[in-house]
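Fold it.
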Amino acid sequence: MPAKYSQIRAMLAITKGSLKAILRSPSAVVFSIAFPLIFILVFGFIGGGNGKTSVKIAIDKGSDTSSPIYTALSQINSIKIVKGEDAFLLQELEKGRITAKVLISKTGVASPAYAIKITSSGAVMPQNIQLLQSVLNGVIAGMNQKYFATNQTIARVDATISQIPGRAYKTIDFILPGQLGFSLLSSGVFGVAFLFFNLRQQLVLKRFYATPIKRAYIVLGEALSRVLFQLLTAIIVIGVGHFAFGFTLVHGLTTFLTIMLLSFIALVLFMGFGFIVSGLAKNESTIPPFANLFTLPQFLLAGTFFAVEAFPTWLQPICNALPLTHFNNAMRNIAFEGASLAACSKELLILGLWIVGVYGIAFKTFKWD
């Protein structure tokens, strides 16, 4: 009696063959591994900061907010005052998300009338603290010229900066998640689009119909090979970033495994875009323009190189609607802050909604012949 045909074994055979083809493709290796690694090397050697020029500060609750010093600070474009509960502000300071907490207090004498005390953390770049000190001294100098003809001063900044412990946020901690996300996006869209379009054009899919394997297993087999290759890419990118440039993995292996699971979820979504493109494309030359409609806006606007807050206010809602933005945010929270997937429920929910919408369209547009 002949053995029963195994759909799983056939699917794995397709996966094995497709994975070999991917590994032998120079373009797949270049764009999935070499391209993001080049950016990681460049920004890794640059070093220190996260590239932000604005300074976020918190005002201590004991401050005199009726003082002219506070009024002047609140009107400076390069200074953003963050408000919230003490526990929240302390966490933001420890993570380096705000530069300092500023205490503006009355001295009870005419000169200086106010004393300014700065509290920062070890996670804050020194140049940001220096910028804040320069801004404060500039504000004071301007007021002195306006109100005093002598050497009196309206306020004095304490030269001693109080420090609380904090983890330094390096350039690589911001850049690597964006590069990994773009690698997953590019491979998911371009790789799947070209793969299934060529399989259809070369009548390979029709030949599969002559075998007992079901359509779903054909798609799963090819998709699984792409997933395995990209997860291997993620391991290489994260490994180089961590061991060569100190990319932060707060909880070590646990954080790494959480990132891999997040990468799998994101890759499933991005491959859906590839299925749509392969269905819409009339010929091979139309695939890149269609694919770029999905990849280019996200590469530029999803926080790959610059924080979303750096874009104009009117553009930020568009940035925050893109799925790559939420992958980048979730990965940075997991890697640097040690967040779990449950703590990234908002980002996962948005990615999940994108998955439902994208595959709903993919099922309508995907063609077998």
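Confidence is low (pLDDT under 50) at residues 46-52.
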